């Protein structure tokens, strides 16, 4: 996988559009040096199939671009690709600006709910560093939240990000949000797969794209890792997002835009029907691309244009 392949079509404000400056990254994070090598094109890169290398790169990127220190995740937890996660946030900032006179709202008055914040806490870290937003992060995994809290404490960010345990494995908003609180956005990186077998098949496909011999890795470790609940759920992303849409109805006046990532284009027809049934006033599908990986953001609201403008006057 060439380094340039990860840079295509990223958001114009994305700090990771250019080639990684490994000399600069290593200067701030010396532990990255052991993973840097020169590829056949004469460019410095890392082995993106090596989880340790990806983690070291993430640690260096977070420190250099976002001022995050002491970032780490336990073995086998999802190690997120930083450029793609930043893209999601930049597109959400654009979405908020539409009803705010074209200006991106920044600062602690903007509240964002991250469903499935994970052990990496990546969206709150980047979102707060870039736009100053306040976050509430939820997860069903107490161990993941413990690690996320450790990262927040190490970076004095506990006042900017609140973590909440979702005690019900089937609930999304219920039990972790309150009737009297408001969010400008929700975001989510849902479990995409319907089973572990499907997740492993996706892993094998990624290894093939990375130029690895898949027959040597019958159960390959995904280069970005992931626990069971991070990777799959019954019914896959179609069922998960449909449940999210259903649960968004009771809180329709408490949130401006509900959003989630959608990995598979085949999921869209079903969730469009779910949005129509739920009575969403408006919905958007925002295409994203990171090299060979194609994904999209699904966003919906129950507010008309005037209500969206009035939201910022509250």
Radius of gyration, taken over Cα atoms and rounded to an integer in Å: 19 Å
The H/E string reads HEEHHEHEHEEHHHEHEEH
For the largest beta sheet, what order do the strands appear in spatially?
5-4-3-6-7-9-8
Q: Give the structural class.
A: alpha/beta
How many beta strands in the DSSP annotation?
9
* Biggest sheet character: 7 strands, mixed
- CATH architecture annotation: 3-Layer(aba) Sandwich
Quickly count the helices: 10
**CATH H-level name... which superfamily?**
Vaccinia Virus protein VP39
Quickly name the level 1 CATH class: Alpha Beta
Shape descriptor: globular
Catalytic activity: adenosine(1618) in 23S rRNA + S-adenosyl-L-methionine = N(6)-methyladenosine(1618) in 23S rRNA + S-adenosyl-L-homocysteine + H(+)
Organism: Ferrigenium kumadai
Function: Specifically methylates the adenine in position 1618 of 23S rRNA.
EC number: 2.1.1.181
What labels would you give this structure?
single chain, 10 helices, disordered N terminus, globular, alpha/beta, seven-stranded mixed beta sheet, 314 residues
Molecular structure report:
This protein is α/β, with parallel strands linked by helices and 314 residues long. The protein has a single domain (79-311), classed as Vaccinia Virus protein VP39 (Rossmann fold, 3-Layer(aba) Sandwich). The protein has helices spanning 22-28, 51-66, 82-97, 122-131, 142-154, 196-209, 228-231, 236-248, 268-278, 305-311, and strands spanning 37-38, 44-45, 111-115, 134-139, 161-165, 183-188, 255-262, 282-290, 293-301. Strand 8 (282-290) and strand 9 (293-301) form a beta hairpin. Helix 3 (82-97) crosses helix 4. The longest helix is centred in the N-terminal third of the chain and has 16 residues, at 51-66. The chain starts with 21 loop residues before the first helix and ends with a helix. The model is unreliable at 1-6, 195-207 and 213-221 (pLDDT under 50). Its main location: cytoplasm. GO terms for molecular function: 23S rRNA (adenine(1618)-N(6))-methyltransferase activity.
């Amino acid at each position: 996988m060439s380094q340039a392949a990860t840079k295509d079509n990223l958001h114009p404000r994305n700090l990771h559009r250019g080639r990684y400056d490994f000399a600069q990254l290593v200067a701030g994070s010396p532990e990255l040096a052991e993973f840097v090598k020169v590829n056949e094109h004469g460019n410095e890169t890392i082995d993106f199939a090596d989880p340790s290398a990806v983690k070291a790169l993430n640690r260096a990127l977070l420190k250099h671009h976002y001022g995050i220190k002491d970032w780490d995740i336990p073995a086998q937890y999802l190690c997120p690709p930083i450029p793609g996660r930043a893209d999601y946030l930049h597109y959400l900032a654009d979405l908020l600006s539409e009803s705010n006179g074209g200006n991106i709202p920044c600062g602690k008055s903007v509240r964002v709910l991250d469903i499935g914040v994970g052990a990496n806490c990546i969206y709150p870290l980047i979102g707060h560093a870039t736009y100053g937003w306040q976050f509430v992060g939820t997860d069903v995994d107490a161990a993941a939240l413990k690690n996320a809290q450790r990262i927040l404490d190490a970076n004095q960010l506990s006042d900017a990000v609140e973590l909440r345990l979702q005690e019900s494995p089937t609930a999304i908003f219920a039990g972790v949000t309150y009737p009297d609180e408001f969010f400008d956005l929700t975001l989510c990186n849902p479990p995409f797969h319907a089973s572990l077998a499907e997740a492993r098949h996706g892993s094998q496909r990624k290894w093939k794209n990375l130029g690895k011999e898949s027959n040597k890795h019958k159960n390959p470790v995904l280069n970005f890792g992931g626990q069971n609940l991070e990777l799959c759920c019954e019914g896959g992303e179609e069922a998960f997002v449909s449940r999210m849409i259903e649960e968004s109805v009771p809180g329709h006046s408490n949130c401006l835009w509900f959003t989630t990532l959608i990995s598979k284009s085949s999921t869209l027809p079903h969730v469009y029907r779910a949005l129509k049934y739920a009575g969403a006033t408006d919905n958007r599908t925002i295409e994203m691309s990171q090299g060979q990986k194609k994904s999209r953001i699904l966003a919906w609201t129950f507010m008309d244009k005037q209500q969206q403008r009035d939201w910022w006057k509250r």
